[in-house]
Write a structure and sequence with these properties.
There is one protein chain. The protein has 427 residues and is an alpha+beta fold. The protein has 3 domains: 198 residues, BirA Bifunctional Protein, domain 2; 111 residues, no CATH class; 86 residues, Anticodon-binding domain (Rossmann fold), CATH 3.40.50.800. 41% of the residues lie in helices and 21% in strands. It contains 16 helices and 16 strands. The strands form 3 sheets. The chain has an 8-stranded mixed beta sheet with strand order 1-5-6-11-10-9-7-8. A 5-stranded mixed beta sheet has the order 13-12-14-15-16, with helices on both faces. A 3-stranded antiparallel beta sheet has the order 2-4-3. A hairpin with a 5-residue loop joins strand 3 and strand 4. The relative contact order is 0.12. The model has no long low-confidence stretch (mean pLDDT 92).
Length: 427
């Protein structure tokens, strides 16, 4: 018996019915990005490893599929789209600013697979480079809410916090600067391990329980007004609060502030964020939870050797977004399906093929299957979900009038070629 091969752990095959759903999602994301004036770019699937680790540090190499090419150069598969975008923005100063860019592509991470998380997956990013205004955050967040409205996903929140506020809270707590990353890394696990788990993480990182208690006294806030009190005279902290207040006020004027929520627990793991951060959350029976996020990262382009400039972006985790839509039945729309055309007998194959070609040239998708007996054709139509079909026999070939059969309703309509085009355009 021949050996059967499986996909590598954390990867999947997508069969035609799944790809139709995915195509609907990708096309809708692309349409909304372009409605908001973002231009598409693409970047290599692999980069020099230094490009990938520059913004996230050597620790990121644990999650990167790294390898040496035949010339001994150290390379890696991209683990997000932002590193490559930072390189592009730094290398192409000729592109007018503000630069509105989007990208949809595969990324790879050597991570433990779980619900909605794989080692090969798609991200869909939109970013603005060249502005420090909170108008960019508002535009990005507004676009995200419109994308989700277009998917009819009402039960979600965009959680907001600021790295400026978090950094100030660390300083006010008396945690040494060299331990800031450890403290925030521990806080980032709060929803998974609870307060006692975070306390243990603090101790494991070499911090004291007294520092933990002081940190939690400062960090736990319900409102931005409380955050202002906790950061005290820390200028950067107060600046962070003011920026979030601006974002909420502008969102209220635009009518989407009900989708935004301040969340003191939000950290966002990547260290390159410099200001407001945000994350999309929804209730999920399968545990998808967070399905997108982003924030401001003003230092990134300068890190890659370009002119320092403001930058802010949002990334949709496409696999989790699709999972949420499927939970709610929102991904049931399967996209365009082809018309099934067959010849009633071998003598009519040429006529059926000519009809297929004419319909394709008119913009109608057609799958031609040659000569096929009616009972076999109907079974094939059901199995492939190609429920619109035309059988070309001798009479149809002579008259130019065809029976368009709907496999779902079993109804038939007599139509000429122009009528077929009118009936099937957009299907």
């Amino acid at each position: 018996m021949a050996k059967k091969f499986e996909t590598p752990k954390g990867t999947r095959d997508f069969l035609p019915s799944e790809m139709r759903t995915r195509r609907v999602v990708f096309d809708r994301l692309r349409r909304f990005f372009e409605l908001y004036g973002f231009d598409e770019i693409d970047t290599p699937a692999f980069e020099y490893l230094e490009v990938l680790t520059l913004k996230s540090g050597p620790a990121a190499e644990k999650e990167i599929y790294a390898f040496d090419d035949k010339a001994g150069r150290r390379l890696g598969l991209r683990f997000d789209l932002t590193s490559s975008t930072g390189r592009v923005a730094a290398s192409h100063a000729e592109l007018p600013r503000p630069l509105h860019r989007y990208q949809i592509g595969k990324v790879w991470r050597y991570d433990a697979p779980q619900a909605g998380r794989y080692r090969e997956f798609y991200q869909a990013d939109a970013d603005v480079f060249g502005s420090y205004s909170t108008d960019c955050e508002v535009e990005i967040l507004l676009m995200a809410t419109e994308v989700l409205r277009g998917f009819d996903l009402p039960e979600y929140k965009l959680l907001l916090n600021s790295r400026k506020i978090l950094d100030a809270q660390v300083r006010v707590s008396g945690i040494p600067p060299e331990k800031k990353a450890d403290a925030l890394r521990a806080l980032d696990k709060l929803h998974k391990i609870g307060k006692d788990g975070v306390r243990k993480e603090f101790v494991a990182y070499g911090l004291t329980e007294a520092q933990f208690e002081r940190f939690f006294d400062v960090i736990v806030v319900d409102t931005l007004a409380q955050a202002t009190e906790r950061v005290g005279a820390d200028d950067k902290g107060r600046e962070g609060v003011a920026e979030l207040e601006e974002i909420f006020a502008k969102a209220e004027r635009l009518g989407f502030s009900d989708k935004l929520q301040f969340d003191w627990t939000l950290v966002r793991g990547l260290d390159y964020y410099t200001g407001p951060i945000f994350e999309a959350h929804a209730k999920s029976a399968a545990g998808f939870g967070s399905f997108g996020g982003g924030g401001r990262y003003d230092d990134l382009v300068g890190l890659y050797g370009g002119q320092p400039q403001g930058a802010v972006g949002f990334s949709f985790g496409v696999e989790r977004l699709i999972g949420l839509l499927e939970e709610r039945g929102g991904a049931a729309q399967k996209g365009s399906r082809a018309l099934l055309v067959a010849a009633a007998d071998p003598e009519q194959v040429a006529a059926a093929e000519r009809l297929s070609l004419a319909l394709r040239r008119a913009g109608v998708a057609v799958r031609f299957v040659g000569a096929m007996k009616r009972d076999k054709l109907f079974k094939y139509s059901t199995a492939t979900e190609l429920l619109q079909l035309v059988i070309v026999g001798e009479e149809e070939a002579k008259s130019g009038v065809y029976s368009l059969r709907d496999g779902a309703t079993r109804q038939e309509r007599k139509l000429d070629q122009a009528g077929l085009v009118a009936a099937l355009s957009g299907t």
